[in-house]
Amino acid sequence: MFEAFAVYFVTINAMTFGVFAADKRAAERRERRVPEARLLGLALLGGTPLAFVAQQVLRHKTRKEPFRSRLWLIAGLQMLLLGAALVYRFR
User: pLDDT tens across 72-81, in order?
Assistant: First the structure.
């Protein structure tokens, strides 16, 4: 079970970083962009860690509101869920 989760986590985060990079490249070239809903959806599915890394490394969507706030909201919700799961697991 843990191995499957680890593979999923690595895969969704790699995809998230790749889509952020593609959107940054499209922005620079003034091409069709990736919808913000898709970027946030990838974060919601577990790609939050590399979404934050991509923001900093690529300097992409670092000041864009409400995108930033929504990404932090997703991260906060995920942390709450993780905390609840850990409390339930080790009670």
Answer: 999 999 999 9
- The CB density around residue 80, as the number of other CB atoms within 10 Å, is 10
In angstroms, the CA 45 to CA 42 distance is 5
pTM of the model: 0.92
pLDDT tens digit string along 17-37? 999 999 999 999 999 999 999
Provide the residue range defining the domain that includes 31: 2-89
- Give the total number of structural domains in the chain: 1
The Cβ of residue 26 has, within 10 Å, a number of other Cβ atoms equal to 13
Measured distance CA(72)–CA(74) in Å, rounded: 5
Residue type, 83: G
Query: In sequence order, which ranges of 1-91 are alpha helices (DSSP H)?
Result: 2-28, 36-42, 48-58, 67-89
